Amino acid sequence: MSDPLFDVSDQVVLVSGGTRGIGRAISQGFAERKATVIVTGTRQETVDEALDAIVGESVHGLVCDVADPQAIRTGVEHVITAHGRIDTLVNCAGVNRRKPALEVTEEDYDFILDINLKGAYIMS
Protein backbone atom coordinates (compact mmCIF):
# COMPACT_ATOMS: atom_id res chain seq x y z
CA MET A 1 0.00 0.00 0.00
CA SER A 2 1.53 3.32 -1.03
CA ASP A 3 -0.58 5.68 1.09
CA PRO A 4 1.79 7.09 3.78
CA LEU A 5 -1.14 7.39 6.20
CA PHE A 6 -1.15 3.59 6.37
CA ASP A 7 2.60 3.04 6.18
CA VAL A 8 3.62 0.44 8.75
CA SER A 9 6.88 -0.59 7.16
CA ASP A 10 9.56 -1.17 9.74
CA GLN A 11 7.05 -1.28 12.58
CA VAL A 12 7.07 -4.19 15.01
CA VAL A 13 3.56 -5.61 15.31
CA LEU A 14 2.52 -8.20 17.89
CA VAL A 15 -0.73 -10.02 17.09
CA SER A 16 -2.11 -12.17 19.90
CA GLY A 17 -4.24 -14.89 18.37
CA GLY A 18 -2.57 -14.24 15.03
CA THR A 19 -2.55 -17.87 13.95
CA ARG A 20 -6.16 -18.20 12.78
CA GLY A 21 -9.18 -16.32 11.53
CA ILE A 22 -9.26 -12.55 11.90
CA GLY A 23 -5.89 -12.53 13.68
CA ARG A 24 -4.21 -14.32 10.77
CA ALA A 25 -5.82 -11.96 8.25
CA ILE A 26 -4.63 -8.93 10.23
CA SER A 27 -1.15 -10.46 10.46
CA GLN A 28 -1.14 -11.00 6.69
CA GLY A 29 -2.17 -7.39 6.10
CA PHE A 30 0.66 -6.04 8.25
CA ALA A 31 3.15 -8.45 6.63
CA GLU A 32 2.12 -7.31 3.14
CA ARG A 33 2.81 -3.74 4.22
CA LYS A 34 6.34 -4.67 5.29
CA ALA A 35 5.92 -4.63 9.05
CA THR A 36 7.78 -7.08 11.25
CA VAL A 37 4.95 -9.28 12.47
CA ILE A 38 4.98 -11.58 15.49
CA VAL A 39 2.00 -13.92 15.65
CA THR A 40 1.07 -15.76 18.82
CA GLY A 41 -0.86 -18.93 19.39
CA THR A 42 -1.21 -21.44 22.17
CA ARG A 43 0.43 -24.35 20.34
CA GLN A 44 3.61 -24.61 18.28
CA GLU A 45 1.75 -26.52 15.55
CA THR A 46 -0.72 -23.69 14.93
CA VAL A 47 2.06 -21.10 15.05
CA ASP A 48 4.03 -23.09 12.45
CA GLU A 49 0.95 -23.43 10.22
CA ALA A 50 0.38 -19.67 10.37
CA LEU A 51 4.02 -18.96 9.54
CA ASP A 52 3.72 -21.21 6.49
CA ALA A 53 0.54 -19.40 5.37
CA ILE A 54 1.42 -15.75 6.01
CA VAL A 55 3.42 -14.20 3.20
CA GLY A 56 5.83 -11.48 4.23
CA GLU A 57 9.47 -10.57 4.61
CA SER A 58 9.58 -10.63 8.41
CA VAL A 59 7.00 -12.85 10.07
CA HIS A 60 7.81 -14.59 13.33
CA GLY A 61 5.93 -16.92 15.64
CA LEU A 62 5.63 -17.11 19.38
CA VAL A 63 3.86 -19.67 21.53
CA CYS A 64 2.00 -17.64 24.15
CA ASP A 65 -1.13 -18.62 26.02
CA VAL A 66 -2.88 -15.35 26.88
CA ALA A 67 -4.71 -17.12 29.70
CA ASP A 68 -1.33 -17.35 31.45
CA PRO A 69 -0.06 -13.98 32.74
CA GLN A 70 3.51 -15.26 33.11
CA ALA A 71 3.50 -16.56 29.52
CA ILE A 72 2.43 -13.08 28.40
CA ARG A 73 5.22 -11.39 30.36
CA THR A 74 7.80 -13.83 29.04
CA GLY A 75 6.53 -13.49 25.47
CA VAL A 76 6.50 -9.69 25.53
CA GLU A 77 10.01 -9.64 27.01
CA HIS A 78 11.14 -11.99 24.23
CA VAL A 79 9.70 -9.73 21.52
CA ILE A 80 11.29 -6.62 23.02
CA THR A 81 14.65 -8.37 23.39
CA ALA A 82 14.52 -9.70 19.82
CA HIS A 83 13.11 -6.60 18.10
CA GLY A 84 13.81 -3.72 20.45
CA ARG A 85 10.21 -2.56 20.81
CA ILE A 86 6.56 -3.18 20.03
CA ASP A 87 4.96 -0.45 17.93
CA THR A 88 1.53 -1.99 17.53
CA LEU A 89 -0.35 -4.57 19.57
CA VAL A 90 -3.41 -6.30 18.17
CA ASN A 91 -5.31 -8.28 20.81
CA CYS A 92 -7.09 -10.83 18.67
CA ALA A 93 -6.90 -13.92 20.89
CA GLY A 94 -10.38 -14.96 21.90
CA VAL A 95 -12.49 -17.96 22.75
CA ASN A 96 -16.10 -18.87 23.24
CA ARG A 97 -18.10 -21.75 24.62
CA ARG A 98 -20.97 -22.16 22.17
CA LYS A 99 -23.95 -22.95 24.32
CA PRO A 100 -27.05 -21.19 25.61
CA ALA A 101 -26.27 -18.61 28.31
CA LEU A 102 -28.23 -20.56 30.89
CA GLU A 103 -25.89 -23.52 30.37
CA VAL A 104 -22.64 -21.55 30.81
CA THR A 105 -20.91 -22.76 33.95
CA GLU A 106 -18.67 -20.71 36.20
CA GLU A 107 -15.74 -22.66 34.76
CA ASP A 108 -16.84 -21.70 31.22
CA TYR A 109 -17.18 -18.06 32.28
CA ASP A 110 -13.71 -17.99 33.87
CA PHE A 111 -12.17 -19.64 30.79
CA ILE A 112 -13.71 -17.04 28.47
CA LEU A 113 -12.90 -14.03 30.66
CA ASP A 114 -9.33 -15.16 31.40
CA ILE A 115 -8.55 -15.07 27.68
CA ASN A 116 -10.87 -12.48 26.19
CA LEU A 117 -10.64 -9.84 28.91
CA LYS A 118 -7.86 -10.54 31.39
CA GLY A 119 -5.44 -11.78 28.73
CA ALA A 120 -6.02 -8.72 26.55
CA TYR A 121 -5.61 -6.44 29.58
CA ILE A 122 -2.33 -8.03 30.69
CA MET A 123 -1.03 -8.14 27.13
CA SER A 124 -1.75 -4.43 26.80
Mean pLDDT: 95
Count of individual beta strands: 4
Radius of gyration: 15 Å
Give the class from helix and strand content and strand pairing. alpha/beta
Order of helices and strands: EHEHEHEH
Task: Write the topology of this structure.
Elements: E1 12-16, H1 21-32, E2 36-41, H2 44-53, E3 59-63, H3 69-83, E4 88-91, H4 106-123
How would you characterize the overall build of this protein?
With 124 residues, the chain is an alpha/beta fold. The protein is 44% helix and 16% strand. The chain contains 4 helices and 4 strands, in the order βαβαβαβα. It has helices spanning 21-32, 44-53, 69-83, 106-123, and strands at 12-16, 36-41, 59-63, 88-91. A 4-stranded parallel beta sheet has the order 3-2-1-4, sandwiched between helices. It is globular.
Key features?
124 residues, alpha/beta, 4-stranded parallel β-sheet, 4 helices, globular
In short:
This protein has helices spanning 21-32, 44-53, 69-83, 106-123, and strands at 12-16, 36-41, 59-63, 88-91. With 124 residues, the protein is of the alpha/beta class.
